[in-house]
What does this fold into?
Amino acid sequence: MEPVELTGAGLSPLEAVALGQRRTAVRLGEVARKRMLASAAVVAAVSERRPVYGRTTGVGANRDVLTADPEHGARLLGSHSTTGTTSYPKDVVRVGLLIRVNQLAAGGSGLDPAVADAIIGLLNDDDLPDLHRGGAIGTGDLGPLAELGLALGDVIDGTSALPLLSSNAFTLAECCLAYVEASTLINVVPLVGALSHVALRGNAEVYDTRVHEARPQPGQVRVARRMRELLDGLPLRPARVQDPFGLRAFAQVLGPAVDHSDALGNSVRIDINAAAENPLVAGDTVLHNGNWHAMPIALALDSLRLSLHSVATLSTTRVANLVDPDYTGLSRFLASGAEASSGVMMIEYVAHDALAAVRSAAQPATLGTATLSRGAELHASFAPQAAALTSQLLDALREVLASELVTAVRAIRLAGLTPKALAPAAVGPWLTDALAALPDDLADRSLREDLEIARGLLTQWGDRQVEHPAEAG
It folds into this structure.
């Protein structure tokens, strides 16, 4: 297979993750190579006439200290490679290197293409450096990028150290991975919700096109359309005129998560193709700027987490309805067998434990403050922390949804409903999958294995979905 060209444009978060996961060989595009050569010549010429931050000056509060020391770059990399002790996962490193090369290909850094070629060599040989978390607060991934500079060896000279550091590449890598995970997980929420709708004999009027045309919030409209696809033709008479919020407000709560997933995908797409360098080589000059500030990414991550918290909360309300005979007409806690059996009673506890983890991870990282480098840097976005919290939240959300899935399928079993009985509704084949995967033993026992199977089922369903909500519409 021919290597994929990195050109500084057109790379999507999904493509970046796919290239990293498949370990696809890459190369620097020829137009990008010429662009980088031209920008390197410009910054060299400009630095002969006036100070250029990090190249002929110190950094941070040392921005006013001029230097012509040929060892300046080596010292900069050495000092800035101070990090924490936790290594980035290899998938984050791999995607981060891809992103940094693609950013360099945009031609705003002033770095020679030999630097991009050296990073590509690490990628294509799968010789990934051990890079560490710590020291990044949304104003550039300084520590791990300095470690990368040291790993590149002689290709980084005294003038190219700072330009290499002018990026949030590894934070963006975590954003790409979180975006793919979030959009995939969001895409299976309707499948779980549809099974709960069946178990609770919900009223499908809530998804009527006219309802959502009356309030055309984009994500809400898309969720309602998906629910109609799953439930249209369902031959079950609704149990109620008006359902509890878990069913009635399903599209209104999941819809904003779809919108915020869109927003994150769009923000990340811009940044992984951007020459967000400081200083920026633009035409025949060099411009000092603040494009290293990751606030758009941090806010998109915070907003997504907050919206997913509501999705998780609504899921637990459906679990509560599913174990309540007043809503299902079934036994308390969907128990089977001897009197006072507990059934899925503990599922609610597991779901709320996971919900507590979702709630903790949903706290906005952008509320943080920072005053650094003798006051030279008075603000930070904390995008790296927002990205890490998003990964934590998604794992906990999966546990919440697994709890709902186990409970809904058990209720459907107890009600004696079969996939054939749901025809022609499209939810039927998904129920077939769930019934085949989850144990049919309804006696009191540990349901830990059921939850683990359900988590895996959610992953399988996500992989089978063609449309990612954040890539659609």
Summary: Residues 321 and 327 are 6 Å apart (CA to CA). The first strand starts at residue 4 and ends at 6. Confidence is low (pLDDT under 50) at residues 467-473.
